[in-house]
Specification:
Serine Threonine Protein Phosphatase 5, Tetratricopeptide repeat, mainly alpha, about 70% helix
């Protein structure tokens, strides 16, 4: 839980700290499936955005594929595969992987969040806003989700609403 808390802050140092906490948890719980498929691949996928992170996403993709070998019903692993494929252009179709993640767990905020970014990058801003609002419904206190809502409203040209959303968030950095 502490690792997830630091991961959600999305600064380079916090993500690095989260990875360290996760690795300690993994050492303590070697036979548990949950830490590896859920948290570790997700952190690997996010770490690429920070200077201390890896320069490719093979680590996150490999961890997600391994998790799916152990349990193909893990929404987080499907979301990480989609994220890695989206960023690298290698691997499965991101849209289908996000949709599979959400089919498996419709209440997985990160899947909604990352899927909204994919939709926005494809200039499907109305769909992206609907998806990020779903993420917000699941995780209403996430500053990064709040930030994406503001960015998506801006992309839609809804500037007054963008300012309202910007006032709500604090200390968030880009996802």
């Amino acid at each position: 839980m502490r690792a997830r808390q630091f991961w959600n802050l999305r600064t380079g140092a916090d993500v690095q700290h989260a990875v360290g906490l996760f690795q300690k948890a993994t050492e303590k719980i070697r036979n548990s499936l949950r830490p590896t498929p859920g948290l570790h691949p997700r952190m690997c996928a996010v770490r690429i955005r920070f200077p201390a992170g890896p320069r490719n996403e093979s680590q996150g993709g490999a961890a997600a594929r391994r998790a799916l070998e152990l349990d193909g019903r893990l929404a987080e692993a499907h979301a990480v595969l989609a994220q890695c494929a989206n960023r690298t252009g290698i691997g499965p179709q991101p849209r289908q992987e996000y949709q599979e993640a959400l089919r498996l767990n419709p209440n997985h905020a990160t899947s909604h969040h990352w899927y909204s970014l994919l939709l926005a990058n494809r200039e499907k801003f109305t769909e992206a806003l609907a998806e990020i609002r779903k993420a917000q419904n699941v995780d209403p206190l996430s500053p990064v989700i709040q930030l994406v809502i503001g960015g998506t409203l801006y992309d839609l040209g809804r500037y007054d609403e963008t300012l309202v959303e910007a006032d709500k968030r604090s200390n968030a950095t880009w996802p």
